[in-house]
């Protein structure tokens, strides 16, 4: 049950990067809620004269929220799958390639979403990230199946 | 701080299975959004003539989304709690039983949700998974309380 | 790649506490859905005569759901960042302080949210937790940058 330190470091780097990227979406939402005067709760309204309160009110705010939610649905699974994958004795080059593809795909996904890039850019980025996650999960399940 | 490899393997198997199960909900949502012509964003609409755009528009799509959200709220905590629980010196048999109950409960939860099985099936599955999570969390907090 | 057991124990304690705190929001939502007769799905309604069904119907239920969602967006990232941070050779005192600030900030955040405490209480608690997460993430990315 030992993990190569270069392998661990590569995962830690991409896990840290992707988590910060997801957290940044929350800050971005706050900024647009202020810009579009769309606070999430009525006690926030006093901070700035509000036009509308709550979710599902402003397409620009909602677009960032959807990109954020998609990160939650895809990046959080990666944080666990990537860590457990380290214990399946993967080749260093394969693991690095998978982690880099995942990070690149999720950054493209967000840029395509918030800039409303025509499909299939966002769809392809989504499926690239999903493909990496599914491969990691398959590797873990098959490697540890005997211990179920 | 050593973890038995059979214990780790059992957790890794169930963590991988539950994560893939959660990720599959996203693919399922995409499929139903296409079937029901209910894309999430306006730039998606061109891919297929859309009847309605966005969330909260179609009960079948929303039902899968609610099951997905419930996985996020319950399975993601399990991924951390289960890993930390391995370091509390649990009995192998107890740990395996808890992980298997959790996986079974969450699969029943989703099947009950998407097939609209009458209550209390979904409620019982929810509380079974929640009970496992709460037990894992209690074990961790009490085991490591001195290091707070 | 060794982690001090006191350092690990401190992280495990706060990770367990924050995860249980997040899970408790789900139980809290269930309780208020019953009290306000606002079940989430139509098959739940038979359990209790319902006034309204689904999300975005009752401000008290929605307020707890928003606090829960904010935990998902901030506490789940902490569970990964805190674990990886342990491998960056942090000083024990610094790490303990960061974990304690995070736990305290997130508890204040929830109390401020559900009790509708006037701003900036909730905002400050949010940014304190976000600040800890960002620092953990920065430490991880810079420590492991060479292994990208």
CATH class call of chain A: Mainly Alpha
What would the principal axes of the Cα set say about the shape of chain A? elongated
Question: Strand fraction band of chain A?
Answer: under 5%
Query: In which range does the helix fraction of chain A lie?
Result: over 70%
Computed CA radius of gyration of chain A, to the nearest angstrom = 19 Å
Main pleated sheet of chain A: none
Q: If classified by CATH, what would the architecture of chain A be?
A: Up-down Bundle
TL;DR?
Three copies of one chain form a homotrimer. With 148 residues, the first copy, chain A, is mainly alpha-helical.
Q: What can you see in these coordinates?
A:
The structure is a homotrimer of 148-residue chains. By secondary structure, chain A is mostly helical. Chain A has a single domain, classed as Membrane associated eicosanoid/glutathione metabolism-like domain (Four Helix Bundle (Hemerythrin (Met), subunit A)). The model of chain A has no long low-confidence stretch (mean pLDDT 94). At the A-C interface, helix 1 and helix 2 of A face helix 2 and helix 4 of C.
């Amino acid at each position: 049950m030992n993990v190569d330190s270069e392998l661990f470091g590569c995962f830690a780097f991409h896990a840290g990067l992707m988590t910060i990227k997801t957290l940044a979406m929350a800050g971005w939402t706050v900024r647009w809620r202020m810009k579009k005067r769309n606070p999430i709760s009525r006690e926030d309204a006093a901070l700035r004269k509000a036009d509308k309160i709550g979710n599902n009110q402003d397409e620009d705010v909602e677009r960032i929220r959807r990109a954020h939610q998609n990160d939650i649905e895809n990046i959080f699974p990666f944080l666990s799958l990537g860590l457990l994958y380290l214990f399946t004795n993967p080749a260093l080059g394969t693991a690095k390639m998978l982690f880099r593809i995942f990070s690149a795909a999720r950054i493209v996904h967000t840029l395509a979403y918030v800039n409303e890039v025509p499909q299939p850019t966002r769809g392809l980025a989504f499926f690239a990230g999903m493909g990496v996650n599914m491969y990691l999960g398959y590797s873990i399940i098959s490697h540890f199946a005997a211990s179920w």
